[in-house]
Design goal:
Pfam families: Lectin_C. This is C-type mannose receptor 2-like. InterPro entries: C-type_lectin-like, C-type_lectin-like/link_sf, C-type_lectin/snaclec_domain, C-type_lectin_CS, CTDL_fold. Keywords: Disulfide bond, Signal. The chain has 154 residues and is of the alpha+beta class. The protein is 20% helix and 26% strand. The chain has three helices and eight strands; from the N terminus they run H-E-E-H-E-H-E-E-E-E-E. A four-stranded antiparallel sheet has the order 1-2-8-3, with helices on one face. The protein is globular. 34% of the residues are buried.
């Protein structure tokens, strides 16, 4: 499945504008951000650390369009959970973006977040069929692919 996903992501990203973004980073239309999908499985904190090495953060999401863009970076037909930069690590039940952006859009699965088993970090969950690309709180030490978001200085 990973080989198919990788092939599909390469084909899909050829349709995305990379204007002014570094190599392997992709711009969502006219947004001032570049995004990069990392297929290597990492904990939430390790994923954030990797993003920071690029001057980026785990992706924050402001609307449905951005949510769909971030989820589709892994390629069509892929249903992996993807770490994003939302968590309630600091205060249980109060979700905040790591990059400080305001939480103006939410896309939770029904009955989520549920904090089942100390789940403090958020993934875009592609494993629930029709309800794909909804958010799920997950255990931060789980390992998942992730998406970094970098501000594009114009």
């Amino acid at each position: 499945m990973w080989c198919l996903c990788l092939f599909l992501v390469i084909a899909e990203l050829s349709l995305v504008s990379a204007q002014n973004c570094p190599r392997y980073w992709f711009r969502n239309n006219e947004e001032s951000y570049c995004y990069r999908y990392f297929s290597g499985l990492q904990t939430w904190q390790k994923a954030q650390d990797i993003c920071e090495t690029y001057g980026a953060n785990l992706a924050s999401i402001k609307d449905e369009s951005e949510n769909d863009f971030v989820f589709k970076l892994q390629g069509y037909g892929c249903n992996n959970g993807i770490w994003i930069g939302l968590s309630d690590i600091v205060t249980e039940g109060t979700f905040k973006w790591f990059d400080g952006n305001a939480l103006v859009y939410e896309n939770w699965h029904v009955d989520e977040p549920d904090n089942n088993g100390d789940q403090d970090c958020v993934e875009i969950d592609g494993s629930r069929g029709v309800d794909y690309s909804k958010w799920n709180d997950a255990v931060c030490t789980d390992t998942k692919p992730f998406v970094c978001k970098w501000f594009l200085p114009l």
